[in-house]
Design goal:
Strands 1, 2, 3, 6, 7, 14 and 15 form a seven-stranded mixed beta sheet that branches. A four-stranded mixed beta sheet has the order 4-10-9-5. It has a two-stranded antiparallel ribbon with strand order 8-13. By secondary structure, it is of the alpha/beta class. It folds into two domains: about 70 residues; about 280 residues, no CATH class.
Length: about 375
């Protein structure tokens, strides 16, 4: 009799666990776990990565609120004349920067063709390895269903594409590139398009963006050189780069990202002309990839990310670059792993709990397993100036 009762309990427990597993699987398929997965990832990142430091080979320069105030009495309100950006570029290259990367769009002229500000930035760009930002978008067809032109100049493809985009990958049909003088002088261009997860948090950055069937690097990877990472089999050096079906990489965040205020660099540019001591020595940037972006609230490039709700967009690009340089990647589970673990986990917890709690407890245990098995989820354009 006792054996029969025990079998009944086991069967009831496994049945309850199986039902809980199927319920969890249904909820997973409906996307119910997407937000909890994100919250779990963020909590783990805050615990494990708060003290992680951006590799020394990457430096970040920010246009912060102090910079806007510093420059208002010199050149006026934002946007600044592009000769200012030319001075910054020359200062960084003079210090031996490995590459200068602009997370600021220069897609519109700042005056008539050939104006001195645009020309100054183009000349500074031509003086060393400089990466400029581009934006790739996918516009929808018009109301009659007419296809939109891709307009991919052959010269742009030959100079800047990493190679053909993987088969089936979504590609843009329109791009906003630097103005011709700056584009012609650029060592590389990098995509600045970022998309948040469904809960609005930015946890991943594209390795590349497709345009006209070709893969163009994201802003950070563009600094690694022409065709540095093959789109079909992403790897940098001997380290594979884990990407999802959209070509995006789940970021392994850094809680410690030292940043220079661009006001210090501009003050040092002034000091060079006056022969006075420098606030920032250009040698600080020797051998480093330098990314320049914005953190001032009014420039609208602050994004919610796992470690902070107000993260400068350039930090996300710098994080991807740091992960690539160190091989410090997160590797999300394959898509089939979550439903499999949900079902197996529910059955295992049901089997474990049945002896102490009976079928009801087993069912609840299975449900708890389904809710607790949260895997890492797959890891706005900059303002034009």
């Amino acid at each position: 009799m006792a054996g029969s009762t025990r079998k009944t309990v086991w069967r009831g427990g496994l049945l309850s666990g199986g039902v809980a597993g199927l319920l969890g699987l249904s909820l997973w398929a409906m996307g119910v776990f997407v937000r909890p997965e994100g919250w779990a990832f963020d909590a783990l990142a805050r615990w494990a990565r708060a003290g992680a430091r951006l590799p020394d080979g990457v430096a970040v320069v920010l246009v912060d609120d102090a910079s806007l105030e510093f420059m208002e009495t010199r050149v006026g309100r934002w946007p600044w004349p592009r000769r200012v950006w030319a001075d910054v570029t020359e200062f960084l290259l003079m210090g031996g920067a490995r590459c200068v990367v602009w997370d600021i769009l220069f897609t519109e002229p700042q005056g008539p063709p050939g104006n001195p500000d645009d020309q100054a930035l183009a000349e500074a760009t031509a003086s060393g390895p400089v990466v400029h930002a581009a934006q790739f978008v996918r516009d929808v067809p018009d109301e009659v269903g007419a296809a939109l032109p891709v307009d991919l100049p052959e010269s742009v493809r030959e100079r800047f594409a990493w190679g053909p985009a993987p088969e089936g990958a979504e590609t843009a049909n329109r791009a906003y590139l630097p103005i011709p003088p700056i584009l012609d002088a650029s060592w590389a261009i990098g995509a600045v398009d970022l998309q948040p997860d469904p809960d609005g948090v930015y946890r991943r950055v594209p390795l590349w963006r497709g345009w006209g069937g070709w893969a163009f690097p994201s802003l950070g990877p563009a600094a690694l050189g022409p065709s540095a990472i093959p789109p079909e089999r992403p790897a940098f050096g001997e380290t594979a780069v884990p990407v999802d079906g959209r070509g995006e990489v789940l970021l392994n965040p850094y809680g410690d990202i030292p940043a220079f205020s661009i006001s210090g660099i501009l003050a040092s540019v002034e000091a060079l002309g006056e022969g006075t001591p420098l606030l920032v020595d250009p040698s600080e940037f020797a051998g480093r990839i330098v990314l320049i972006g914005a953190s001032a609230a009014g420039l609208e490039d602050l994004k919610p990310a796992p470690l902070s709700p107000l993260t400068p967009g350039v930090f996300l690009h710098a994080t991807l670059l740091g992960n690539l340089l160190t091989g410090d990647h997160l590797r999300p589970w394959p898509p089939w792993a979550s439903p499999l673990v949900l079902v197996l986990g529910s059955l295992l917890v049901a089997a474990w709990t049945q002896t102490a709690r009976g079928p009801v407890g087993a069912g609840l245990g299975g449900a708890a397993a389904a809710l607790s098995l949260l895997r890492p989820v797959r890891a706005s354009p900059a303002r034009n100036c």
